């Protein structure tokens, strides 16, 4: 993790509401913000979803996030909640606000990748509902509580920026297409939301990670997506293929790389940055597109 930028911390006195916080990027964001003075309201579903071909976080993972946050000097309230259910998120947020009195930062980053899920249309539905509707739910339960100076940060993906016009095998992977579509819709939703919030002094931005070294990436469905030529590819088979996503010579970035961007967008250092589509993609976008404003 990084080090504090000042004695007080770059988000000292602020409260952050983070979805998908039990492990991976969400846990990393919680720790990084806590290191810089924030208190954390952390939620996660903490159970598996049938269409997802890798294990999701557990209650024990969420407890471990809490221990890391406290070790970093932050206070934390945790709740098991499904982002697909706005009422569950509202209850979790209300519990955190009852403890801390407010919320200043929303990090809507809970996400699943349902690719290679037996061509199941339910994988499409679960992906859209978790990634896109879940992002909307997290943001919109927080909106009534946000005041001037608040910051909303949504996690999309470099996949949202890819050219998807060429579909040589339509319908072959509804879960994979649902992932890309959900992330693209997040980008557009936040763009227009940021416009409405700007006059209120509330900022909203999107971060687009490339391959990130989490359980989602290091999973059998993801390995098969990158190595469709193999029936049961392993990490060693997929890792060389992961490089194709980035212009820089790396197979992936680390959760901490995304957390540093989250911290900047959460802090007053970015107080006039809103509506941004911020790529933390090791140059991946540069491989796909010519320059344009």
TrEMBL record:
Keyword list, A-Z: NAD, Oxidoreductase
The organism's place on the tree of life at top rank: Bacteria
Pfam families: adh_short_C2 (PF13561)
Keyword check for Repressor: no
GO molecular function terms listed in the Swiss-Prot or TrEMBL record: oxidoreductase activity
Entries under InterPro entries matching the protein: NAD(P)-bd_dom_sf (IPR036291), SDR_fam (IPR002347), SDR_subfam_1 (IPR023985)
Recorded family membership: Belongs to the short-chain dehydrogenases/reductases (SDR) family.
Family annotation (NCBIfam families): SDR_subfam_1
PANTHER family (alphabetical): DEHYDROGENASES, SHORT CHAIN (PTHR24321), ESTRADIOL 17-BETA-DEHYDROGENASE 8-RELATED (PTHR24321:SF8)
Protein name as it appears in the record: 3-ketoacyl-ACP reductase
Organism: Mycolicibacterium diernhoferi
């Amino acid at each position: 993790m990084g080090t504090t930028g000042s004695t007080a911390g770059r988000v000292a006195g602020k409260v952050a509401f983070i979805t998908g916080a039990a492990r991976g990027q969400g846990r990393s964001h919680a720790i990084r913000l806590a290191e810089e003075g924030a208190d954390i309201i952390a939620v996660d579903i903490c159970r598996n979803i049938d269409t997802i071909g890798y294990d999701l976080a557990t209650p024990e993972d969420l407890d471990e996030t809490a221990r890391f946050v406290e070790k970093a000097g932050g206070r934390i309230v945790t709740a098991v909640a499904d982002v697909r259910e706005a009422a569950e998120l509202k209850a979790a947020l209300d519990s955190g606000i009852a403890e801390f009195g407010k919320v200043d930062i929303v990090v809507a980053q809970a996400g699943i990748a349902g690719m290679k899920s037996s061509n199941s249309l339910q994988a499409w539905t679960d992906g859209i509902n978790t990634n896109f509707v879940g992002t909307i739910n997290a943001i919109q339960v927080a909106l009534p509580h946000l005041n001037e100076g608040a910051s909303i940060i949504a996690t999309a993906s470099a996949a949202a920026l890819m050219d998807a016009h060429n579909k040589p095998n339509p319908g072959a992977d509804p879960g994979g297409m649902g992932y890309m579509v959900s992330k693209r819709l997040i980008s557009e939703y936040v763009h227009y939301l940021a416009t409405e919030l700007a006059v209120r002094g509330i900022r909203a931005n999107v971060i687009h990670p490339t391959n990130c070294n989490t359980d989602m990436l290091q999973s059998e469905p993801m390995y098969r997506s990158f190595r469709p030529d193999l029936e049961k590819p392993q990490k060693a088979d997929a890792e060389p293929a992961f490089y194709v996503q980035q212009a820089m010579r790396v197979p992936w970035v680390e959760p901490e790389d995304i957390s540093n961007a989250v911290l900047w967008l959460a802090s007053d250092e970015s107080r006039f940055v809103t509506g941004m589509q911020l790529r933390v993609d090791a140059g991946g976008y540069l491989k796909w597109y010519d320059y344009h404003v």
